[in-house]
Every structure is written in C-alpha cells, then in structure tokens.
Amino acid sequence: MAGADAGVDLRQSRLLTDLTSLKTRLVETAHAQGFDIVGITRPDATPLAGVRLQQFLAEGAHGDMAWMEATAERRASPQALWPQVRSVIMLGLNYGPDHDPLEILKARERGAISVYAKGEDYHEVIKPRLKDIARWLIAEAGGDVKVFVDTAAVMEKPLAAAAGLGWQGKHTNMVSRQFGSWLFLGAIFTTLELPADEPERDSCGTCHACLDICPTAAFPAPYRLDARRCISYLTIEHKGPIPREMRAMIGNRIYGCDDCLAVCPWNKFAQEGRNAKLAAREVARAPKLEELARLDDAAFRKMFAKTAVKRTGRDRFIRNVLIAIGNSGDAALAPAAERLLSDASPLARGAAVWALTRLDPARAAAVAPQYAGEPDPAVAEEWALTPNA
C-alpha cells in the first residue's frame, strides 16, 4: 500500500508541475497578446457577489437596466452561467490616459468623452485576443473554453479581485497596484483545473477621494453605487430624458464620466496605456459642442465608427450634447440648441428646449408658440416649464 500511495503522490506531483508550467506559459501568451496582468480563480470564489447583486437590484439602483434583472440568476456565479467551468482566467489591459482627463471639464464649449471610449471599441480590441489565447490553451492542454468581454452575464470585477488583479475600490471599479483605476477586463472560462492565485488585499485605506469628487453623489456609501445618479449611466445606458434635477451636475460630460477614476491615488504608479488601438482618436479628445450638435445619424455613425460611443445611437448622444450646451453658459451656443427644437428625435427636442431656456430664456419664450402642438408628452412638458411659454 505504501508503494501505491507513493505512486499516487508522484503522479499528483507531476500533474501539479505540468499545470504550473502550463500556467506560466499561459501568462506569457497573454502578455504577448498585449494584456498587462493575468490571474486565475475558482468559479466559486465570489460567493457574496450574487448576494450584493440582489441587494443592488432590490434597491432599484440599476435604474432602467432591465437586462441586469433578467440575467441576475446567471450573473450570480460562473457555474450558474456554465456548469462545466472549473477555472476562470481573468485578464487586464491597461488603458491609462496620456493626459489629465479632468482638464476638459474646464472647456465648457467642448464635450468630455470618457477615456475608455475615445479609442477603438475595447470589446472589438480585446475579444479577438481572448479567442487567440483560448485557442492556444485548447491546443496545449485540451478542455473547453468560453470567452467574455463585458457582454454576457459575468461579474468581471469580483472575479478579477478574486484572481489577484486588484480590488474593487470604494468607487466599485477595479483598482490595481500597477495600473490604478485604468484596466479593461476580459475573462476566459475553462474546464481545466488550473492553479488559482491569491486575491488582492483591499488597499483603499482611509482614502475617499473618489466618493468626494462625484458630481452627482452617486455613492450612498463606500463600495456602493446608485446607477440612477451616475453620469456614466445617465449619458450611456439611460434611454429617456435625463432627469431635470441631474442636468446641471453633468456639466460638459457627453459620454461617461472619469472623475472617480481619475482621482484615485493608485494611478500615480500606472504608466499610460501603450496599445495603439486604444489610443484616443483626435475627434474624441475635445470635440466642439456646436459641431457635434450638427450631426445627423449618418454623420454620427461615421464620426464614431468602431468606438463605444456609436453604440448609444445618435439621439441619446445629441441629448447629451444639448445638456452640455445648456450647461456651457455660452449664449453663442443658443442657436445650436434652437436648430434642434424641430429635430425628429423627441429626446433631442426635449433637451434642446431645456438648453435654449438655460442660455436664452427670452428667445425660448419667443419661439414657444411655434411648438404649441408638440406631440410628445415629455417634450411638451419641457415647453410647459419654459418661463412665459
């Protein structure tokens, strides 16, 4: 029996050596594909993620993101999504900016686009690389795989924390010792049993800079987000008119918000992202609001082709541009708002009424009678709130 036990121990030792070698080569392959950090975790390593998700949904903090409710059961754990998964490979790609992303907020006549959306759509950049790594893994060790980039019912941030890529900061985003708050995440689920990494320790300490800077007080407590007050949600996910009480707080942010990310002290250790495809396009660095307000659907699609911005659609984007115009304090932009009072999109028309009223209330009152027959109730309400309308 002793000899049999020794044989089992030897086989287990060889298997562990083989898996450790495979993991080393996997990390090397991922680095060759441009990923900056790689970690592995077990699919059952985030037992509290589902509980916290249910609390988030129960509070209604997801706003009108109904897809979160619809996928909650599968999202709760990797095994609920794919019962065969045995290991989760989490990969991070640094997209740190080469500039201060908050400087643009001072240029009120220009639109601020979130750093992640200024270059090529990260989904399209990352997914082919994940597939290449997955194919390599199958060729090397067999098994089955699935790859995900923020498009399926996968809770990437808790899994990335469990895999040692970093920790979820008080702003609920991933924070890395090496790359601060600037990491794109991708996941590879596999049926292989790979050696897992240790989770990273939360190192936010007593810092609460990310909570203090939020323009809309979207964090009811550290580590908790109310998406209904988040500018990224309001300008990207929210489909209807932006609530009136939130509009002035948005400033000139026309797609997303970087404030809580940009002030993270851990960013000082991060190098700027070096991936050419993720580099900011010139048209997205500091576009003029007046020029953006002229975009029709075709021009919008052309300008933001292959970027994340395109996925919001022209109408929501123009809504955001008009909110920024209304916040600019620049009366010279009033004509840009007035031109859109008759836009085909009710979203644009309603935002145009608000923007014109902010910049030139007398002009808004003067033209109001021309739009007395407004068919959309939300736009009609905007007109009703115009002084002397």
Q: How far apart lie the N and C ends?
A: 94 Å
| Uncertain residue ranges | 6-11
CATH class of the domain at 2-99 and 119-211 and 267-279: Alpha Beta
CATH fold topology of the domain at 2-99 and 119-211 and 267-279: NADH Oxidase
Essential attributes:
single chain; 389 residues; alpha+beta; NADH Oxidase; 4-stranded antiparallel beta sheet; two-stranded parallel ribbon; 8 strands
Give me a quick take on this structure.
By secondary structure, the protein is α+β, with helices and mostly antiparallel strands. It is 43% helix and 9% strand. The chain has helices at 2-32, 49-58, 66-70, 72-75, 78-81, 122-141, 156-162, 209-213, 231-237, 244-250, 259-262, 282-285, 289-292, 297-303, 314-327, 334-339, 346-359, 361-367, 377-384; strands at residues 37-41, 87-94, 112-113, 145-148, 167-168, 174-175, 183-190, 253-255.
Plain-language structure description:
- The structure is a single chain.
- The protein has a domain at 2-99 and 119-211 and 267-279: 3-Layer(aba) Sandwich (NADH Oxidase).
- The protein contains 19 helices and eight strands.
- The protein is an alpha+beta fold and 389 residues long.
